[in-house]
Specification:
It is built from five helices and six strands. By secondary structure, it is an alpha+beta fold. It has a six-stranded antiparallel β-sheet, with helices on both faces.
Length: 191
């Protein structure tokens, strides 16, 4: 009742009340000899079972509806991700994200390609840093530290060194997602 599910409380509570009243009435009438009926509680107990069955059926139906809605949401989200990746690939932009304090960078195949990783490779922060030009490493680490602590948006340029030895300029821009006022996720795009 206090949790706001009054219908369930009334249904189950009402069935218990009905069970108690019918069982009491049957016992009294049987003892007074008004009815020739053995004293047992099963007829009243059936009311409780029926009420619980009704509530379980509603829960199952609601669960099925929620599962259907979840599957539709997943399909729409998957479609949105595919459209975003297609747009980013067409613009030659790599998209990435990383939770604050975590090592794994979730990156698009294009981002991996830009930084010289295999398209399906899961890149760690240390692997990313190993690609940064030695002269720019301190600046990039400093920007990242400020973003993780202050939660501010960012935009900077730096050089990377590919495994082939090629030096490439990268422009990276993005934002920091806050949860309860604290930085939670870094998201960005790099070209």
């Amino acid at each position: 009742w206090r949790l706001g599910n009054r219908q369930r409380a009334v249904t189950i509570g009402g069935s218990f009340a009905l069970f108690s009243i019918t069982s009491f009435a049957a016992a009294v009438l049987s003892f007074w000899g008004a009815i020739q009926w053995p004293v047992f509680v099963s007829p009243g107990f059936l009311c409780i079972i029926g009420a619980m069955g009704l509530e379980l059926t509603r829960d199952i139906r609601r669960t099925a509806d929620l599962a259907h809605d979840l599957n539709e949401s997943k399909a729409l989200l998957s479609e949105s991700v595919e459209q975003l990746n297609l747009s980013a690939d067409a613009a030659n932009v790599g998209i990435w994200s990383r939770k604050v304090g975590k090592m794994v960078i979730q990156a698009s195949p294009k981002w991996n390609e830009i930084f010289g990783f295999e398209p399906s490779h899961i890149v760690t922060r240390d692997e990313f840093r190993s690609r940064i030009h030695p002269d720019d490493l301190e600046m990039v680490v400093g920007h990242t530290t400020v973003m993780e602590k202050a939660g501010s948006d960012f935009e900077y340029e730096f050089r990377i060194v590919l495994p082939s030895g090629e030096v490439r300029w990268i422009a990276s821009t993005g934002k920091v997602d806050l949860v309860s006022g604290k930085p939670f996720m870094l998201r960005g795009a790099s070209v």
